[in-house]
Automatic annotation (TrEMBL):
One GO term (biological process): translation
Designated name of the protein: 50s ribosomal protein l17
GO MF annotation terms: structural constituent of ribosome
A Pfam family the protein falls into: Ribosomal_L17
Lineage: Eukaryota, Sar, Alveolata, Ciliophora, Intramacronucleata
Amino acid sequence: MRHKNHTRKFGRDHKHRKAMMRNLITSLVTHDRITTTLAKAKELRPLAEKIIRKAKEQGYQGNVFLKQTLFTKKSIERAKTELAPRFQDLAAGFTRVKYLGRRTNDKAKFGYIEFIKNPIEQYEKNEIKQEIEKNGIQSFWAWEKKILKQEKGYFKQQITQLKQKIDLEVESVLQTSAGNNQSEMESFNAQIRADVEKKYAQKRKFLEVSLERVIKEQAMHRTQENHKTYQKLTEGYAFPIDEFRIKQFQSL
């Protein structure tokens, strides 16, 4: 039977859980956005919606509920004077929950919950717009596509140059040994090439692995772009070719 499964327990008893939710909703009303685990954000959402509905009523019962739920006078006043007028034309859907990934320490899913039409959201939109105008790129997709194409061309060019360098070095070794018996040179030709390729094996492996990584990222980019679910990753991400990467390659 599904008794007592209508809400999340979070490993806490009733009093502890109630105090935790009151703390979260007080912070949300005060700051418009808070970052927490995804489960807590989803559990907090119905309470946040109810807070706005009660604040819009401007009645005795609504004031009692706000005082019983919110801890600070500042949050109570803000719910009445700022949040209620902001959502006067909306009947529901005052909050938004966004998934941000997994935390590095315990790998728990986390995200943020926020009230819509908040100043933070408007600031971020303006910042993105200014960045697009400054860099001259229409969207993040166009920027990453350009970077991946740049990396792919760079590594292909380096692999071609390395092959040409190996061929030239093999020819120079053969020319310096031209005075020896021709039959002996033909027998050692394969060995000379193997020695030269072994000399540049580490550098060639680095270039081939890097090219393979870029090709995989391009395939992932196309797949995610088609499904419209791509998010900027913090690890394994395609960055522009910078001086550090070039120095790392030249040191091999």
